[in-house]
Amino acid sequence: MMETTATRATPFERRDGVLLVGGIPADRLAERVGRTPFFAYDRALIDQRVGEVRAALPAGIELSYAVKANPMPALLQHMAGLVDGFDVASAGELGEALNTTTPPHRVSFAGPGKSTAELRQAVAAGVTVELESGNELVRLREVGELLGIRARVALRVNPDFSVRGSAMQLGGGPQQFGIDAERVPAVLAELAAADMDFQGFHVFAGSQNLDAESICEAQRATVRLVAGLAEAAPGPVRYLNLGGGFGIPYTSRDRPLALGRIGENLAELLETQVRGLLPQARVVIELGRYLVGEAGVYLTRVVDRKESRGRTYLVVDGGLHHQLAASGNFGQVIRRNYPVALACRDDAGEGETVDVVGCLCTPLDLLADKVRLPPAGIGDLVAVFCAGAYGLTASPTAFLGHPPPAEVLV
């Protein structure tokens, strides 16, 4: 599918035509980093986005950061001062979260397939383990008994509804994520017999959703579901993770999420249902991509320019081994270009149609298909936007043995 424009609007500014990241011109930042390609994350843009979310959310809603979106250690240290907690999905992410100032009881550990070793680490650290199956409960009970520690535990629920508009469905129907809602009462009975420190529930039904009303509908359904499940709980619900799924616009066809509508819905839910039905619950919204995705840019340099049977290719020193999602190979059904631009030239008056391709020996290594850019040559910097989430750590960095890119927070 052809994209005839180089990029949709991005939050990054320019000075004299040069892209600014953290107030630094992109060409100067490249010299400071010392090599290309690299990822750069703008802390001011992260602060701005978190501030927007805080302003939209009603008092009484906590904000948690999903570390899987971007686990860069410096970024996590920065996020620790902005959010109320972290959600992790591996022992590696757990270790990075615990290296910040975030207290362990504000860290939750979700994800299927946790190893027994990971459960031991989580229980020893005192984080909340979100159970994904009955078998995981058995292993967690054994770990707690072995360590002499009463494990903090919540149940991740696979709801009996799905969320329309989500790019990736994580709930409803058969799933590897969570415990089917109809099985939860039986698991709660086993949990009570195991004498664990029950915290509450986590329901996350879908991700990358730009439809505010769909998200609101899912939040309302989640509260109804948890209120019913709470009747079988071994104690009061003290933790209610409503998930997130807030999407960001990647293409010119996408429209930004109406954040205010979600805030209004949450305020109504708190007032009319949660405070009456689950009075002890701290309510959490868990976001990753929405907080950091648009604050990142991947900068890569043109190393060759070639013509082939009527098409122009800009060959860059990066590629899908660093930015798999931008190549369309990370869940896209119909490939669409991420926002792409020349970092040091912003001349809308002239342009050419080009393909931006990486340095790997595969036709899948396509960062931009038929985009309009100002005429570019060897040495020019290409910026791939929306690179702050699911970039480096979601990519096959070992493929073909190229060196890893740098990451900087500026």
Q: How is this structure best described in words?
A:
- By secondary structure, this protein is an alpha/beta fold.
- It folds into two domains: 14-41 and 293-409, Lyase, Ornithine Decarboxylase, Chain A, domain 1; 71-287, TIM Barrel (Alpha-Beta Barrel), CATH 3.20.20.10.
- 28% of the residues lie in helices and 26% in strands.
- The chain is built from ten helices and 22 strands.
- The chain has helices at 26-33, 43-56, 73-80, 91-98, 116-125, 134-147, 184-193, 212-229, 259-277, 289-292, and strands at residues 14-15, 18-21, 24-25, 38-41, 61-66, 85-88, 107-109, 128-131, 152-158, 166-169, 179-180, 197-202, 206-209, 239-241, 282-287, 296-308, 311-316, 340-342, 352-357, 366-373, 381-384, 406-409.
- Strands 4, 16, 17, 18, 19, 20, 21 and 22 form an eight-stranded mixed β-sheet that branches. Strands 5-6-7-8-9-12-14-15 form an eight-stranded parallel beta barrel, surrounded by four helices.
- The chain is elongated.
- The two termini are 35 Å apart.
- It holds the Pfam family Orn_Arg_deC_N.
The 3D shape can be described as elongated
Report the CATH C-level class of the largest domain: Alpha Beta
**How many domains comprise the coordinates?**
2
Using the CA coordinates, give the radius of gyration. 23 Å
Strand content: 25-35%
- Share in helix: 25-40%
Classification by helices and strands: alpha/beta
List keywords for this structure.
8-stranded mixed sheet; single chain; 28% helix; 10 helices; Lyase, Ornithine Decarboxylase, Chain A, domain 1; disordered N terminus; 410 residues; pyridoxal phosphate; PLP-binding_barrel; alpha/beta; Orn_de-COase; Pyridoxal-dependent decarboxylase, exosortase A system-associated; 8-stranded parallel beta barrel; 2 domains; TIM Barrel
